[in-house]
Amino acid sequence: MPQRVTLAMVADKAGMSAATVSLVLNNRAKELGISVETQERVRRAAADLHYRCNPVARGLRTKRTGMVGVVLPDLTLSFCADMLQGMEDAAVEAGCGLLVRTCGRDPQREEECLDWLYAKHVDAVLLTSFMPAASLPAIRRLNTAGVPVILAAGDAKHESTLPWIAIDDEAVARMATSHLIGLGHRRIAHFLVNERRLAGYRQALADAGIEYAEKLVIGGFADSLDAALENAAAFFDGPWEGGAITAVYAGYDLQAAALVGVATRRGIPVPSALSVVGTDGLPFAAMTSPPLTTVDLPKRAIGIETLRRAMAWLDGQESWQDRLCPGTLLVRGSSAAPRS
Amino acid sequence: MPQRVTLAMVADKAGMSAATVSLVLNNRAKELGISVETQERVRRAAADLHYRCNPVARGLRTKRTGMVGVVLPDLTLSFCADMLQGMEDAAVEAGCGLLVRTCGRDPQREEECLDWLYAKHVDAVLLTSFMPAASLPAIRRLNTAGVPVILAAGDAKHESTLPWIAIDDEAVARMATSHLIGLGHRRIAHFLVNERRLAGYRQALADAGIEYAEKLVIGGFADSLDAALENAAAFFDGPWEGGAITAVYAGYDLQAAALVGVATRRGIPVPSALSVVGTDGLPFAAMTSPPLTTVDLPKRAIGIETLRRAMAWLDGQESWQDRLCPGTLLVRGSSAAPRS
DNA sequence: TTGAAAGCGCTAACAA
DNA sequence: TTGTTAGCGCTTTCAA
After folding, report:
1. Which among B84, B97, B119 is the nearest to A75, CB-wise?
2. Which residue ranges form the domains of chain B, and what is each CATH number?
3. What is the tens place of the pLDDT at every residue in B289-336?
4. Which nucleotides on strand D sit less than 7 A from a protein beta carbon?
5. Hey, is the C-beta of A224 within 8 angstroms of any chain B C-beta?
6. Residue A102 dihedral angles phi and psi, to the nearest 5°
7. Cα dihedral sign for A13, A14, A15, A21?
8. Considering the entire predicted model, what is its pTM?
9. Is A188 left (phi over 0), alpha (psi -120 to 50) or beta?
10. A88/B contact by beta carbon, under 8 A
11. Phi/psi at B139 (nearest 5 deg)?
């Protein structure tokens, strides 16, 4: 197991002191007026030896590890995985590493993750949380140590106290609902996700002069296919009333897909007897038959944006531009005009 | 921005030397015979001050960063994301961190990722690669520095030269094909994934005394839905011959789902006119109608296993038990006996 | 324009 | 049984 190449070895080979080598390799030659010849010698030696700065030693001095911590609920959710991929894209660009941790939906584990990242001396933390309130103490601990924590696509409740990048849920829901209204639907049910999507749904109705009816709003958020199928079955057995409702803004793709599946199985043709619109843009939304009309969410873009914000903060540009990201309506086969 | 607590501060508070504190906190008190009272004092002080060892400083001394590098093609693929989640599960258990990097299907980027992790001084690397041959130099560089590289669910070609944990593709394909044969199918097409799955498919046929026909094997691996749909269309226009084939072992869920979709659209009932079996156990496989019969792959388990192997290696247990992991047949709606 | 020296926080010989 | 000492490899004044 041969030694890794150190600064001292490069200095030796170049016949320079380690200090000079360090300066040159960190591109501070210009500002300090180091002779071009010296620079050449140093770079040459470094290249010859394939020198790579040891970030551990550097970190000890500079108090910067070049690593950003990421806390996510679950990589198994394609939403999270996509966002993480975005963060990774931006991390490569920024030259930093991503230290990843998952915590399910457990606030206690979330706090543990944050504390663990604190101990690891990451430079910043990107957090996607359903309830950041619970781990506020850990967040504050990080902040106190100078580590920014940025909320990515998280719950809105703490948007005011923490920097964040989020999905414009209201616009997303409005877009989906308006699409259905534009097709001619008037009685549109909504499967609840959160307050903001509900608000968007209501707004779209209001804009079109359609009266809001509470009984058309269906709760019981499903986080598994089985739960979504049950919700769907209950819907057809109840609120749907054999056709009184001609369209559903399902709020999220899992539920939307379940509705399409159950409808098909019950001989209710989609979209002719019932239009269904989801939200998320998950892969399986394109695989149902008919394929799902949905609002694609910019998961990857949010990841990129969040990482960039963190880097900007570390560079001293505290331009805390919190941001709402829009979605994109993908019109596919599950929505159409109601049959008259 | 208050100082973080250091060992020296704990030593001060406990009225002990830093060395002693270090020893106690690293649980080496017993072996060195440090008095119980001293231990108590030290632990108490550490707890009072909320001391957390600085892994950067420790890393500089011990040459261990407590971080494992992970190189994956793309987190957007649920296969990769699931495996990463497994690695994370095991990493938490092992107390180490995961430094994640993606490289697409680009061998050059793969090599860059490996070199980057080398520079970061990770303790081990877990690699999922379609063609590890290309980055063998980078792998050797890591090995030379004492960093093990373990192949997770990768290509088999280099299984002999690198430690690996892989999917038992042959068994998986045999399982899927045998399921169809068991239902009574004799003319079973296969969409190609790799040599081993093909071998498993052939073996199942041979076991049942069914003759292998090359024209039933269909190439053109699809890595996008569109490509898979095209493949499916071509299949129905060609080899299927209006019903000569009663079943397909599609080799991977994306292709299987596309076949089901296209069949449905063309009025070919699944499974009564055509049975379809996939492999992967991807989320969308449960959302097609009918839901897909598939062989679920133990993505998460592979992730766990790979990380554990890496830790075992670092602990000096070089028990290189390379391992083939089996899949699990999930019988759902897309497969049934052929109508006679 | 370059080098010498100190020290980041920790661990591991070696002393005591 | 505990403390002293000497670095790990790097950056950063300060001095030359």
Report:
1. B84
2. 7-53 (1.10.260), 64-162 (3.40.50.2300), 169-297 (3.40.50.2300)
3. 899 999 999 999 999 999 999 999 998 887 778 889 999 999 999 999
4. 1-5, 7-13
5. no
6. -120, 155
7. negative
8. 0.95
9. beta
10. yes
11. -65, -45
